[in-house]
């Protein structure tokens, strides 16, 4: 069975409707779409620390809404727009995940929206199979 979350009412930059689910669950797996540091359809002000904190928190909120937990996160993808933000992102990441971090990849690329970071997560929970 496949369950889609956040297909109605999701908004991107400028309040436009987004054409994808915020997450999809299937056979114990949860795939959370990339999250940017947006509130009410607008990128928040602030540097990499504030933006990373919100982007990760948005992923965690979606994970919880789907009935998964932080401990179920097995992988995170991170896109930064500036490699110099890597140490600051790592500090935020450590605050969220401490001694039990998920596997991760981080790359530098341009983003479609004018922010400094985008993250997504993949979760697994055997009970949900």
TrEMBL record:
One cellular component (GO) term of this entry: cytosol
Cross-referenced Pfam families: Ribonuc_L-PSP
SUPFAM superfamilies assigned: YjgF-like
Species name: Lelliottia wanjuensis
Entry's EC annotation: 3.5.-.-
Keyword annotations from UniProtKB, A to Z: Hydrolase
Broadest EC class assigned to this enzyme: hydrolase
MF annotations from Gene Ontology: deaminase activity
Name the UniProt record assigns to this protein: RidA family protein
């Amino acid at each position: 069975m496949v369950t889609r979350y956040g297909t109605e009412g999701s908004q991107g930059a400028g309040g436009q409707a987004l054409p994808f689910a915020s997450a999809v669950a299937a056979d114990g797996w949860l795939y959370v779409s990339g999250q940017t540091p947006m509130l009410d359809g607008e990128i928040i002000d602030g540097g990499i620390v504030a933006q990373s904190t919100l982007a990760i928190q948005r992923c965690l909120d979606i994970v919880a809404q789907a009935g998964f937990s932080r401990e179920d996160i097995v992988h995170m993808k991170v896109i930064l727009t500036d490699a110099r933000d890597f140490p600051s992102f790592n500090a935020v990441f450590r605050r969220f995940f401490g001694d039990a971090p998920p596997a991760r990849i981080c790359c530098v690329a341009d983003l479609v929206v004018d922010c400094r970071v985008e993250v997504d997560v993949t979760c697994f929970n055997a009970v949900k199979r």
